[in-house]
Amino acid sequence: MFFVKRLITSLILFVVLWVAFFIGTLALVGGVVGAGAAGKANATDFQSGYAAGQAAGQEIGRKYGRTIFLGTLGTAAVASIGLSFSGVLPWCRRKPQPPPLP
Fold first, then answer.
1. How many CA within 13 A on the CB side of residue 18?
2. 71 CB contacts (<8 Å, ≥6 apart)?
3. Listed residue (88, 87, 56, 73) closest to 15, CA to CA
4. What residues make up the domain containing 67?
5. Residue 4 is assigned to a structural domain of this protein
6. Which residue from 26, 24, 18 is spatially nearest to 60, judged by alpha carbons?
7. Percent of the chain scoring above 70 in pLDDT
8. Under 8 Å CB-to-CB from 39, ≥6 apart: which residues?
9. pTM of the model
10. Mean pLDDT of 1-28
């Protein structure tokens, strides 16, 4: 029963961590690439900067989208298994057993 509790915890934690890692990675990569593209295009107004960033984002999505997807899947899997089976979470800890009586 204890193993099942840890397994269910790791599955739920995997979904939560994957969504967080995936959205965070996409936001970070998109912001960096978009800002760099807008800077290189010498954007003077919002529309031209947005267009340059959008084009760069599309290119990065096609080029590295699968890598980001698989990387976040692997990272979330390792983190969720590590957190649920290491005893960091209180409901995944073993209860201390009293020593046997002599």
1. 14
2. 25
3. 73
4. 17-86
5. no
6. 26
7. 100
8. none
9. 0.80
10. 93
pLDDT at position 17 is: 97
pLDDT level of residue 90 (50, 70, 90 thresholds) = confident
Residue 65 domain flag: yes
Name the nearest CA neighbour of 61 among 33, 19, 20: 33
CA–CA dist 85, 67 (Å, integer): 27
**DSSP result, the chain:** -HHHHHHHHHHHHHHHHHHHHHHHHHHHHHHHHHHHHHHHTT--SHHHHHHHHHHHHHHHHHHHHHHHHHHHHHHHHHHHHHHHHHT-SGGGSPPPPPPPP-
Tens-place pLDDT, residues 37-83? 888 888 788 888 888 888 898 899 899 999 999 999 999 999 999 99
56 belongs to a structural domain: yes
Q: How many domains does the chain have?
A: 1
